[in-house]
Amino acid sequence: MTELAQNLIDGLGRGSIYALLALGVAVVFGVMHLLNFAHGELITVGGYVALWTLGAGWSWYIVTPLIVLSAVLTSLAIERVAFSRVRGSSDFTLLLTSFGVHFVISAIFLLYVSASVKPFDRPSWVTNTYSIGPLNIEVYDTVVIAVTVLTLIGTTLLLQRTMFGLSLRAAAADFDTARLMGVRSDTVIRGAFALSGLLAGIAGVFWLMRAGSISPGAGITPMLKGVLAALIGGLGSLRGAVIGGLVLGLAEVLLRSRLPDSIASLTEGVVFLLIALLFIFRPQGLVTVKHAVRV
Amino acid sequence: MFPRPGRDVGFPIAGCALLFAVFLAGGLIYESFQGRAAERLVTVMLIDAIIVLGIQIYVGNTGVLSFGHIGFGAIAGYAFAVFAISPEKKLKRIPDAPFGLNDVLLNPALAVAVAIGVTVVVALVVGIGLARSGAESGAVAATVITLALLFVTHEVARNWPDLTGGNRAGLTFKVGAALDSRLPIYLCLLGALILARLFAQSRSGKLAVAAREDNLAARAMGVNPLVQQTAALLISVAVVSVGSSLRVYENGSILPDDFFFNYTLLTLAMLIVGGRNSVTGALVGVAVMTVGRELARRLGQDGFEVFGLGLDAAPLDWIFRENLQTVFLGLAMLGFMIFRSDGLLGDWELDGWLWRLWHRRKPEERPEPLAEVAPVGLHAEAEREGAALEVHDLAVDFGGFRALDGAGLTVAPDEVVGLIGPNGAGKTTLVNVITGIVEPSTGWFKLGERELTGAPSHDIARAGLLRTFQNLRLFGALTVRQNVELAARVAAQHRPGSHPPVDALIAEAGLWDVRHRRARELDYGSARRLELARAAAMAPAYLLLDEPTSGMSDAESAEMIGRIRHMAAAVDAGVLVIDHDLNFITGISDRIYVLDQGQVISAGTPDEVQADPAVRAAYLGAESDAEGRA
User: Fold this and answer.
1) A182 — alpha (psi -120 to 50), left (phi > 0) or beta?
2) Do you find a cis peptide bond into B496, omega within 30 degrees of 0?
3) Same domain, B346 and B418
4) Bond into B501 cis (ω within 30)
5) Domain assignment of residue B81, yes or no
6) pLDDT tens digit sequence for A51-106
7) Nearest Cα to B53, choosing from B247, B257, B237?
8) Does the pTM exceed 0.80?
């Protein structure tokens, strides 16, 4: 029982980060029908910003907003340079464009920094824990969950209460109709990328705090988690993305603690397998969004 | 009729031989200038070409983006290594190998066969998953499944050291390259080329391409895309397995990272740059990217020294750095996606070009008129006996909206029946139900004695109900003639009796002069007529035409009446035609049903229906459509 409770807390901490990543993926998918394989690169860029600023002796309190800012700017830049040019292209083109962006960004760091993994200082409190009864809770997980909840509340308010949020949700529901109704596609798409960058930036801060290092290929894992979580939730749905992130985080933690030792090292593989099975039996994801097929 | 020996077999094989010769000659000439240093580069290029051709078979023909093929390559590579490495070597690297694999040793050719077998079995399972996830061109879930496969194989390779030697040691043959002669590589490359081209020209390949161009239209035409996609996947994976085994053998070792993200990027970039829809393109892409990458690598290393020009490269030092080739790769992929997403060659094939060159000398004769070559009575008599189309009491709910509310109708084999009603009356929904796209909540429909309610679209089409679409669904990248030929291929397999000749149908639809034009380049009227001809090529029992004149002028619309009646009579099909244009429907129909709010409110001859007060109230009263179209 205690172990389960412990797993749940660990899983929620991990899942919160995935949820933020997935939400960013889902927001962009909503307005552009683009599954953004370059999403993880926002964290890579943030990672190098952290590497350089921390290396210069700056404190995490200053570095944190810089990471978020760099993610937002990178997201907007990617949209401007690459994605704005393929708007309305076939799904195949969109998928490979984002894949290409992913590789160009990591290759640039490979070219100008180095292929090796560069460590930087983690904040001292990341590994601290405190106890409630029999439970050992990481300060880190607590902060992650709290910030995620706040971020989600903020995002919900943004989506529900502002004109931008309304346009974005309308565009996600039916982009063509939304445009006919006067939603400005440029504004909505750029806004979506900014929001996606913001969410990735917040997730990135936590990701980097835990990792304590950066390398050109570091974006692959967060990208994969975000994309998978968004798909688990059912791509069109923003709520689904958050649920998908939490489910993925919980599944990973539970499997790692429950699988027999001999295959525990294959946890990731097992998770992928389960996800593949989910797609096979429920290709539309956990949260179904019905789209009318026009014939 | 298919496959045609010259066009579909002879020319592709000859073309592939020519391609192979040119490709190889390029490599050998480069080698002869650069000496032994270039030997390995050329060998690697040849092996990359086999793997890229393998990927092309799936990605090109189905349009599904796969990141997983290098994962399949990893499976094949490890299977090959485990079976081909000597027991003594295995004892050193993987002493605890499972399944008693330690004592097994096969000669390399047999080991490749085992690798193919193992990988194809995995591919079959993955293929079922892809099919269930709704794989179609650009499908996101399918792509992510393939990505998951790549990561699963990588994880397993890293974390199952008993089998794979783990992350650092890996499996090795002997020091240096294990392959003594290039002959096996030559043979495999030539084989891969021919296989890829023959598959593309085969029935399976053509149908997969149809589904790539428009999944829904392909299904409504009797194609079951999942069968073709799975066939493409298995063949493609077999070729990738051969290439991967060669790659492992040539490297003399295998590590998890050999078959992961970077190699996926490289092979996909090669495919994309050359043109994923073309076998020739795939090969050109391999050549271009190999040259470009080598150039970038050497520029990164030595700057302009490469050219021996003695130029001062200092100002460009910020570009000419190590790992330049990786940036080049990423930029090439991105650049092509943004500026030329079909690659250098699009769907151009060498043998297709040679074929056209060859035949330019003798112009094609205009075909005989359709009525003369395909007289009434095309179908086997037995099938025609009383094969009425009966639709009974259909109801369909979309959420809270009842689109059909107990609608029913019958069409006799030689009849042209019109279905008319205002927008939103449920006309298209009714056609969607009887073509298997929408499932009814109640009611049934049958063709003759055969109940088809709930059958999948492609079975309904094979049974003889062929439709056109309100908003045109042609196979845009294919030519007019290829569109009709595709239907003829399906018909040859699934429709009994004799079939209308393709060229006669094209001429009948007034498309003879544009038969080599791509469907997406056609004007609206021609595109509509092509859809009609394509449906007719299936030798249907019934043609279901959804607003066949929408977007046409009155004159074109009037002309279409004659064309539809004539073509239906020629292929001996009954017709159910939907429209909201009263002039058109009364002009074409023997009998008319009037649909309003999901119910049939009137039925009879055109005169009877026009006189019916209920119709006037519900329909004519509401719209002054009797005047003509809006």
Assistant:
1) left
2) no
3) no
4) no
5) yes
6) 999 999 899 999 999 999 999 999 999 999 999 999 888 888 999 999 999 999 99
7) B237
8) yes
CB A98 within 8 A of CB A86: no
The whole-angstrom separation of Cα B286 and Cα B265 is 13
Residues of chain A contacting residue B338, judged by C-beta atoms under 8 Å apart = 82, 85-86, 97
Compute the distance between CA of residue B466 and CA of residue B571 in angstroms, rounded to an integer.
12
Residues B292, B412 share a domain: no
- Collapsing DSSP to helix, strand or coil, A182 comes out as coil
| Nearest-angstrom CA–CA distance, B615 and B596 | 9
Nearest CB partner across the interface for B152, out of A112, A269, A290: A269
Q: Which of A134-143, A199-208, B233-242, B387-396 has the lowest mean pLDDT?
A: A134-143
Provide the percentage of residues in chain A whose pLDDT is more than 70: 95
> Using a CB-CB distance cutoff of 8 angstroms, which residues of chain A are in contact with residue B160?
266
Q: Helix or strand or coil: residue B390?
A: strand
For B65, the closest of A95, A227, A279 (CB atoms) is: A95
A1 touches chain B (CB under 8 A): no
Closest chain B C-alpha to A44 CA, distance in angstroms: 16
Residues B453-491: pLDDT tens digits?
989 999 999 999 999 998 889 999 899 999 999 999 899
Domain of B534, CATH number, reads: 3.40.50.300
> For residue B46, is it within any domain?
yes
* pLDDT above 60: residue B627: no
Q: Which two tokens stand for residue A190?
A: 């750029």
- Residue A245: name the closest of A62, A78, A25, A33 by CA: A25
A87 to chain B: closest CA residue: B338
The closest CB to that of A97, out of B143, B145, B337, belongs to B337
Same domain flag for B469 and B325: no
Residue of chain B whose Cα is closest to the Cα of A285: B141
Alpha-carbon gap, residue B68 to B91, rounded angstroms: 31
The 3-state DSSP class for residue B318 equals: coil
Residue holding tokens 């060859």? Answer: B358
**Neighboring chain A residues of B65 at a CB cutoff of 8 Å:** 92, 95-96
CA distance A243 to B395: 35
Is there a contact between B469 and A295 if contact means CB atoms under 8 Å apart?
A: yes
Classify domain A2-127+135-281 at the CATH class level. mainly alpha
pLDDT, tens digit, 9 for 90 and up, residues B576-608? 999 888 888 989 999 999 998 899 988 999 989
pLDDT for B432 beyond 80? yes
Query: How far, in Å, CA of B602 to CA of B599, rounded?
Result: 9
Query: Which residues constitute the domain of residue B514?
Result: 385-627
